[in-house]
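Mods, move this if it's the wrong board.
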Amino acid sequence: MHDMKLLLEAERVLMNTIQVMERLTQEEYTQKLSVLSNSSIGAHTRHLIELFQQLLSGYESSKIDYDSRKRNLKIQQSVNYAVECMFDIITNLDRPNKVLQLKSVCSEDIPIESNYYREVLFNIEHCIHHQAIIKIGLLQLGEDVQNETFGIAKSTIKHKKVCAQ
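Not the wrong board. Structure tokens:
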């Protein structure tokens, strides 16, 4: 049985990113910002996309290596292409859970056992982390971040609701 809640959360987080990206001009998306250590919103978007892509591309072989992602500059240079990539990820996320082996330079090439759902969760949290960085860039550009939950972890949102009561 698929964990639909988890997959729906991944879709929600990616759709939030898409909605923000669709409001940006090409110039805003690619502009190097001092507040982002001279990086761009596009570079951070590329990073979060490529981690999801690595998970999906390694799924069949059960071997995931986030360190060997392609670093496709087209993703960070074209906001429309980035949005297209995120829609492609959403379309392909619904897969059954299974054991995966993670390879990382941090583990000195000793595979680490994980599973698909755990890695989807990792990618959700990683995506939110980069949304928070992207939000800093948006604010620097003078963009209004209309989505109040963009770049904020679900646990933080839940905690703030409890504190407000």
